[in-house]
Amino acid sequence: MAVAGLIIAGLVGVTIIMIGVLALVLPDRAAGFGIPGTRTDDPVFRSWLSVKSARDIASGVVLLALLATAANPVIGIALLGFTLAPVGDAVAVFRARGPRSAAYGIHGATAVVMLVGSFALLLG
Questions:
Q1: How many CA atoms lie within 13 A of 84 on its CB side?
Q2: Segment holding 103, helix H or strand E
Q3: What is the dihedral of CA 79, 82, 83, 87, to 10 degrees?
Q4: Confidence class for position 35, pLDDT limits 50, 70, 90
Q5: Residue 27 vs residues 5, 24, 68, 99, 114: alpha-carbon distances, Å
Q6: Whole-structure pTM value
Q7: CA dihedral in degrees (109, 11, 15, 32; nearest 10)?
């Protein structure tokens, strides 16, 4: 069971780094993450996207560093804590009256996968 948790943690770490980098390089693609009416050419939006991208990249790097150095329970606790990020993203989509499919299908599903991985590491 712990192996599945490690795989999930690794995939989450790599994926969130990729999402952060892609949002910096291709900000026009960020409009599809659930906030309706987002004008990706808006300098204010791009500034906020840079902040989110830095958070995503840093979270992924920390998670991968823990995978390389820490015991499974530590990784499981960290992954559990990092689950707050997609939950917060889902709440942001809901508050912006964005599509429920994005809130549940992207952010909610990510949170569930991360919870499964964290519990696999904590219980395995």
A1: 6
A2: none
A3: 180
A4: confident
A5: 31, 6, 31, 19, 25
A6: 0.90
A7: -20
- Terminal alpha carbon distance of the chain: 5
CA distances from 28 to 24, 33, 59, 96 (A): 9, 11, 22, 18
CB-based contact 2:124 (threshold 8 Å): yes
Buried b (16+ CB within 10 A) or exposed e, 79-97: bbebbebbeebbebbbeee
SS3 label, residue 25: helix
Tokens for 40? 């990706």
Calpha distance 37→42 (Å, rounded) = 11
Reference 24, options 56, 1, 2; nearest CA is 56
In angstroms, the CA 21 to CA 42 distance is 19
Mean pLDDT (the chain, rounded): 93
Place of tokens 């994926």: 15
